[in-house]
Amino acid sequence: MRRLRRVKILATLGPASQTPEVLEQLVRAGADVFRINMSHASHDAMRERIRMIRDLSKKLGHEIGILVDLQGPKLRVGEFKDGGFDLVKGQSFVLDDQKVPGDGTRVHLPHPEILRALRPGHTVLIDDGKVKLHIVDASPTRAVAKVDVAGRISNRKGVSLPDTEIPVSAMTEKDRGDLDAALEEGVDWIAVSFVQRADDIAEVKKIARGRAMVLAKIEKPQAIARLDEIMEISDALMVARGDLGVEMPLEKVPGLQKRITRNARRLGKPVVVATQMLESMITSPVPTRAEVSDVATAVFEGADAVMLSAESAAGQFPIEAVSTMNRIAEEVEQDAIYRTVINAQRSAPEATGADAIAVAARDVAETLDVKTVCAWTSSGSTAFRIARERPAPPILALTPKRETARRLALVWGVHAIATKDANDVDDMAKRACKFANRAGFSQEGDRIVIVAGVPFGTPGATNMVRIAFTGDET
User: Fold this and answer.
1) Which residues of 13-24 are buried (b: 16+ CB within 10 A; e: fewer)?
2) Confidence band of 453 (pLDDT split at 50, 70, 90)
3) Whole-model pTM above 0.85?
4) Among 3, 47, 76, 434, which one carries the catalytic annotation?
5) Residue range(s) defining the domain that contains residue 27
6) Is 76 a catalytic residue?
7) What count of Cα atoms within 13 Å lies in the side-chain half-sphere of residue 247?
8) Which of 352, 347, 192, 198 is nearest to 262 (CA)?
9) Per-residue model confidence as pLDDT tens digits over 118-175
């Protein structure tokens, strides 16, 4: 299952991809991590999908990551007498706390926290921005708005508030139940929706207690305003371009994607680029040329992973979508300009021993043209730091913890294998060479670079680089 690319592919599961046969085809086509969206999955459905993925992982002898995506708060208007009304530009429209069906002049907003937070001048977007209002008068029980973009408003349509910080947690009661169930099943990553502040991530990490790594979905303007502190506390980031594009001007999203991608790499944290990457493949066996360029741009930028949503979850061509994304990534990474772009984005390492060792390993590997960089790692931190440097050779991570190997499935360039820890330095070198040969990263007589921490099994103790020549260890 060795990949011929460094960027990873994250595929969302759904009605089009919920059998063991399709899951296996998706992995063979290129999927590295599966996403379970709790907006559309019950606990029983989640458990069944996790069981199928773990069974498939054992069958293939290949570690497959699992990411559970929490739904987050869903803000919606109430219901209307006749199902909905067409609003006219310039008219007044009221959002209030009255629990009666709406009409062409008002509607119930079943979120008192929103009414308390709204202020004159704030924008209100309905149904992904199809209807746009701005507040002209606000009180804790009602807000009077003017219609800027006309359109139909109907039952239970979503509400977006780009200017309003809502004093609620990113986790609802449903999310807490989903999080507990996911942690009980031993998932690898938890994605947090509706992140507005670092405390939203801290809350999830406090509950997870290291049982899963926590990814922050950057999808709100409030998160952009606090991006540095959110990135600092998160284990990984997702550029959720769909919601960002609703709540912010569309033309700002590409720049934000580059900013988040580069800052995440500087911090040595994985970053996923998501939403509408191959959208047309929901109904078409081939993508548009613009979509191909979009995926290629994310790969050129050095994203750790690119994600498929409805394309693999509910589309007519889930296998083809993964296969297409795989081919695009392979082609980009073989392009002559790819290494130039990746190398130009390097930033100075942090002043730590682990970062110094990671930089040294990259320099040695590229100077000597070695076949792979092998990282012995318990927590995964050594592999994370080496991946930050984006070395030219692939990264082979050897870990005594299977959960670490699964988490590393999301990380750029890392092929992870769960195995018992090394006994001593000689055993470390011998077995690293053996696994490099077996996994197809090297052949007899090739040089590899080995990074480890002594004493073995001590998390965060990366302090050694060694060059070894592989023999026929098979």
Assistant:
1) bbebbeeeebbb
2) confident
3) yes
4) 76
5) 8-72+170-338
6) yes
7) 23
8) 347
9) 999 999 999 999 999 999 999 999 999 999 999 999 999 999 999 999 988 999 999 9
> CB-side exposure of 354: number of CA atoms within 13 Å?
20
User: For residues 325 and 308, what is the distance between their CA atoms, to the nearest angstrom?
Assistant: 9
Regarding whether 151 and 88 lie in a shared domain, the answer is yes
| Annotated catalytic residue, options 275, 324, 382, 399 | 275
8, 157, 217, 388: which is the annotated catalytic residue?
217
Catalytic annotation on 340?
no
Residue 399 bears catalytic tag: no
Of the residues 5, 6, 8, 35, only one is catalytic, namely 35
The answer to whether position 12 is within a domain reads yes
Q: What gap in Å lies between CA 322 and CA 330, rounded to an integer? A: 12
Q: Are 281 and 11 in contact (CB under 8 A)?
A: no
Residue ending a domain, choose from 283, 306, 338: 338
Supply the angle between the helices 198-208 and 173-184 in degrees, to the nearest 10.
Answer: 40
Q: Give the pLDDT confidence of 166-212 residue by residue, as tens digits.
A: 988 999 999 999 999 999 999 999 999 999 999 999 999 999 999 99
Q: Catalytic site residue 431?
A: no
Is the preceding omega at residue 254 within 30 degrees of 0, hence cis? Answer: no
As given in the structure block, the two tokens for residue 263 are 């800052």
Whether residues 378 and 242 share a domain: the answer is: no
